[in-house]
């Protein structure tokens, strides 16, 4: 008796995720190709092929294999039965042979089958599902014969957890093999987002979906289990934490589907090597005590045991992280586990892989190995971005070990500084200094200059510029000739202090010196940092082309030296995003921000403030209110919970203030102004200038125009003295807006004209757009007043850009003056009767205020008149516009304003 379920097309699961990306690939394969779908358990091989087969117009013969099909005669019986039924009894002679007293051998039977198939009127696909169940060589030979001799129009589809031993190289060379593997079958971030949207009763933010993708690496069961386990947003983090540790249901699944079916030698290999992030033959043999490491690794990979080759030579392999965590949970003998970590640590050291060696020293609780590695390789690992691993190691060693080692103290202090934990940094330095001076003065003398360097770095990070300069000078006097790493750091601080004090040329010389020293020492992160600082200096000087060239230079350096995952790479992305934002390349700026997020997410959300700030700017520019509110909420949460450098805070505040202004949230602006730190007496760098302009913008919104003017005058004076050309331009743009509001139109036009002149042959754009729609009026007035050819062209470009910049609420905001009113009256959108009975300038202004959503009381306060006066203006303009109420007035105003604004 044959089981119909083995030769029948399975039903596609009711809630299966549609995978158009993969179905498109399958639909493009030719009938004379072998389609091979291989991946470990759970990747949806059968579901995918079932979904594809059910959509085919031509017949599909389905055969689901199990262990019993290793008997050649049974394999042939089911194969023929499947084809016979799928083709409408299309191979009767071959089918009759199955019941003959003397059944032919498999190759003869398949020959008869293929001979009959040549006469089929349509194409046929034969699916052999779960082919990994086959280990009988005679069945493999039969399948190979089928593949080689299948007539035109007959295609074979194999699904398997392992690579079948069918000699497929010839088919691959001939282009007759189409392969889908683990990488293709894994759910990508878009498919995971679609699945979550379909299955979850709430919206999951993109960051959490990305985290699920990262932890699961697209393995469908982990994602499916997430949709079944999580019923509200409060459960998301709990599930993700369980997934990172090894979810119990996933462990049960892997135990049943994978581990129980393995031979002892493969179980031993997988268990012993699961503690490794990657494995080769040498590591496998050391940890298992066997001599056949390479053979077993290749066998495990071939059989689809969640072990993938990492290089074309198949020397290195890695486990899927979910499977690795499952295997690690199977090791119950603690002594055996500790011995595995010790062996792994020593082997990784032989392979000159200190990061991996340190991980195993820590996991195995091996104090001596850990201290030796930190002492020998700590600085190298810190430069390589291994802060989290080093912090874990030092925390495990404890305060006493830290205090008694100057080297360990400096490692800890550097990491504390990088995390803005300045008090902790000072505490560790002071405790160690006190102990070393008392108990080990020789060690102290050797590290005194390094401690001074560290204190200089903390001081500059805290904004204590003069103190940082003193510490850096002291360090340079104390450091020995062989302490080049600390000398580079001290020079970097000296350069940064010069930059902060407004000595840009001097700062640039220091940064160039650091770059040369660091390159000579192969300290690429420090060299990259120095070039990034040169980029910021060039930007501050208004040299945008030079800044762009330097940014490309440091990006090439980072990529060439494979530093793309380190924090310095985030700085590079941040600078690129700033340049793209300034030039108006919103798409490029968004890509840079998201790349920076990807890098810094590894060290925690705390570090994502610059990226959130840039993404908020982009949402503003696109008029995406929901996105803007989301980024604003994230920024405010980070600012509440963390301490940051003034540069990051100033940029975040600038963006917040602009968002509050767009949303009409004057209360938030007033609250910010009340609590904000005062502006420096001499704002001699870009971030103090930015912080000063934030105060000015807040004062403008709150109508503290005299205070705003006084502060802006100070900003202008210092920017001029220090050669901060970009800030000079931004100050003049802001001043132009303030003067216009104060009805000092001639001076406003003069200020914007100077800003246009400063922008000559420089790709400044965003710096102008920050004042919003009032820029249109000011620039048109400047054009009427007369501008040079280059300035006139720039003004026209900026007017168009401002017109096309939407508001967060989707409406139109535009400042009205005589020029704009004339344009409106000249357009076809204006009713004829309005030309004969024109509105007065004040009535136009009131109409614009109504359109902006202001109440009568707010309009009266804005114009500093009595509410009754505003009501009189409204009655008059309603009569002239021939409208009955406020809604009709708003609709007509919308129509007229659109006539002078190119809305995308």
For the sheet with most strands, the description reads:
5 strands, parallel
| β-strand amount | under 5%
Q: Structural class, from secondary structure content? A: mainly alpha
Widest beta sheet: strand line-up: 2-3-4-1-5
* Helix share, percent: 55-70%
Total DSSP E strands: 7
End-to-end separation in angstroms reads: 69 Å
Assembly of the depicted chains? single chain
Number of helices: 49
Are there runs of 5+ residues with pLDDT below 50, and where?
none
Radius of gyration: 35 Å
Shape: flat
The averaged pLDDT comes out at: 87
Question: What is the fold's blueprint, element by element?
Answer:
Layout: H1 20-27, E1 34-38, H2 45-54, E2 60-64, H3 72-86, H4 92-97, H5 106-117, E3 124-129, H6 137-149, E4 154-160, H7 169-173, E5 177-180, H8 182-185, H9 189-199, H10 206-216, H11 220-229, H12 236-245, H13 248-257, H14 264-273, H15 281-288, H16 293-302, E6 307-309, E7 317-319, H17 321-328, H18 334-350, H19 354-363, H20 367-383, H21 387-397, H22 399-403, H23 406-418, H24 422-439, H25 441-461, H26 465-478, H27 484-500, H28 504-520, H29 524-540, H30 544-560, H31 567-583, H32 586-600, H33 609-622, H34 625-641, H35 646-663, H36 666-675, H37 686-701, H38 705-722, H39 725-741, H40 745-758, H41 766-769, H42 774-785, H43 789-803, H44 818-826, H45 832-836, H46 841-851, H47 856-863, H48 867-881, H49 886-898
Parallel strand pairs: 1-4, 1-5, 2-3, 3-4
Antiparallel strand pairs: 6-7
Helix pairs in contact: 1-2, 3-5, 5-6, 9-10, 9-11, 10-12, 14-15, 14-16, 15-16, 15-18, 18-19, 19-20, 19-21, 20-21, 20-23, 21-23, 23-24, 23-25, 24-25, 25-26, 25-27, 26-27, 27-28, 27-29, 28-29, 29-30, 29-31, 30-31, 31-32, 31-33, 32-33, 33-34, 33-35, 34-35, 35-37, 36-37, 37-38, 37-39, 38-39, 39-40, ...
């Amino acid at each position: 008796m044959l089981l119909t379920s083995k030769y029948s097309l399975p039903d596609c699961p009711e809630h299966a995720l549609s995978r158009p990306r993969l179905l498109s690939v399958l639909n493009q394969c030719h009938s004379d190709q072998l389609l091979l779908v291989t991946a470990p358990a759970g990747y949806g091989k059968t579901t995918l092929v079932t979904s594809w087969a059910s959509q085919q117009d031509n017949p599909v013969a389905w055969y689901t294999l199990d262990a019993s099909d290793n008997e050649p005669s049974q394999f042939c019986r089911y194969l023929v039965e499947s084809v016979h039924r799928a083709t409408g009894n299309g191979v009767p002679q071959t089918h009759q042979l199955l019941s003959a007293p003397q059944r032919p051998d498999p190759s003869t039977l398949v020959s008869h089958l293929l001979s009959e198939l040549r006469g089929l009127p349509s194409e046929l696909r034969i699916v052999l599902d779960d082919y990994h169940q086959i280990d009988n060589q005679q069945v493999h030979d039969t399948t190979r014969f089928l593949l080689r001799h299948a007539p035109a129009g007959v295609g074979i589809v194999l699904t398997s957890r392992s690579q079948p031993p069918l000699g497929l190289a010839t088919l691959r060379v001939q282009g007759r093999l189409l392969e889908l593997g683990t990488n293709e079958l894994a759910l990508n971030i878009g498919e995971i987002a679609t699945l979550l949207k379909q299955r979850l009763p709430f919206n999951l933010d993109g960051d959490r979906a990305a985290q699920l993708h990262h932890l699961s690496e697209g393995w469908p069961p982990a994602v499916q289990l997430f949709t079944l386990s999580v019923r509200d947003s409060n459960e998301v983090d709990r599930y993700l934490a369980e997934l990172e540790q090894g979810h119990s249901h996933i462990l049960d699944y892997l135990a049943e589907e994978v581990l129980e079916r393995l031979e002892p030698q493969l179980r031993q290999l997988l268990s012993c090597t699961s503690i490794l992030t990657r494995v080769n033959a040498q590591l496998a043999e050391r940890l298992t005590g066997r001599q056949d490491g390479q053979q077993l690794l290749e066998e495990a990979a071939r059989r689809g045991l969640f072990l993938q080759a990492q290089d074309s030579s198949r020397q290195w392999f890695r486990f899927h992280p979910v499977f690795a965590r499952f295997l690690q949970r199977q090791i119950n003998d603690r002594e055996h586990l500790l011995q595995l970590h010790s062996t792994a640590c020593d082997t990784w050291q032989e392979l000159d892989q200190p990061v991996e060696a340190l991980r195993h020293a820590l996991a195995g609780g091996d104090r001596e190995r850990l201290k030796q590695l930190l002492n020998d390789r700590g600085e190298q690992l810190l430069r390589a971005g291994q802060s989290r691993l080093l912090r874990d190691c030092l925390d495990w060693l404890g305060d006493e070990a830290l205090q008694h080692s100057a080297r360990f103290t400096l490692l800890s202090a550097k990491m504390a500084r990088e995390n803005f934990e300045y008090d902790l940094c000072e505490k560790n330095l002071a405790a160690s200094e006190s102990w070393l001076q008392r108990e080990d003065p020789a060690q102290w003398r050797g590290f005194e200059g390094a401690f001074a360097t560290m204190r200089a770095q903390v001081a500059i990070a805290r904004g204590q510029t003069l103190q940082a300069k003193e510490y850096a000078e002291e360090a340079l006097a104390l450091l020995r000739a062989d302490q080049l790493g600390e000398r580079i750091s001290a020079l970097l601080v000296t350069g940064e202090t010069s930059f902060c004090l407004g000595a840009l040329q001097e700062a640039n010389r220091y940064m160039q010196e650091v770059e040369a020293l660091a390159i000579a020492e192969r300290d690429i992160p420090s060299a990259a940092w120095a070039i990034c600082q040169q980029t910021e200096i060039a930007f501050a000087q208004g040299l945008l082309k030079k800044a762009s060239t330097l940014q490309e230079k440091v990006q090439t350096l980072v990529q060439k030296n494979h530093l793309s995952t380190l924090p310095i790479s985030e700085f590079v992305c941040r600078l690129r995003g700033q340049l793209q934002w300034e030039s108006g390349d919103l798409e490029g700026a968004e890509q840079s921000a998201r790349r920076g997020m990807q890098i810094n997410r590894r060290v925690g959300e705390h570090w994502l403030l610059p990226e959130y700030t840039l993404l908020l700017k982009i949402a503003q520019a696109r008029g995406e209110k929901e996105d803007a509110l989301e980024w604003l909420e994230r920024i405010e949460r980070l600012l509440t919970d963390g301490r940051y450098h003034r540069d990051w805070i100033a940029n975040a505040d600038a963006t917040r203030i602009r968002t509050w202004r767009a949303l009409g949230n004057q209360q938030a602006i007033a609250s910010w102004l009340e609590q904000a730190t005062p502006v420096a007496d001499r704002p001699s760098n870009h971030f103090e200038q930015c912080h000063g302009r934030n105060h000015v913008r807040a004062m403008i919104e709150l109508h503290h125009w005299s205070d705003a003017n006084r502060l802006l005058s100070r900003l202008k004076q210092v920017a001029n003295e220090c050669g901060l050309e970009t800030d000079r331009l931004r100050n003049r743009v802001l001043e132009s807006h303030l003067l216009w509001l104060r009805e000092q139109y001639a001076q406003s036009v003069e200020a914007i004209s100077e800003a246009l002149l400063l922008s000559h042959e420089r790709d400044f754009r965003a710096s102008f757009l920050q004042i919003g729609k009032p820029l249109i009026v000011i620039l048109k007035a400047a054009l009427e007043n007369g501008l040079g050819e280059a300035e006139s062209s720039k003004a026209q470009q900026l007017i168009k850009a401002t017109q096309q910049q939407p508001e967060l609420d989707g409406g139109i905001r535009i400042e009205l003056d005589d020029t704009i009113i004339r344009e409106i009256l000249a357009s076809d959108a204006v009713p004829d009767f309005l030309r004969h009975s024109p509105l007065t300038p004040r009535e136009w202004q009131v109409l614009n205020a109504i359109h902006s959503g202001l109440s009568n009381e707010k309009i009266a306060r804005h114009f500093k008149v009595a509410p009754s006066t505003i009501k009189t203006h409204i009655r008059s303009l309603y009569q002239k516009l021939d409208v009955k109420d406020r809604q009709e007035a708003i609709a007509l105003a919308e129509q007229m304003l659109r006539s002078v604004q190119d809305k995308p």
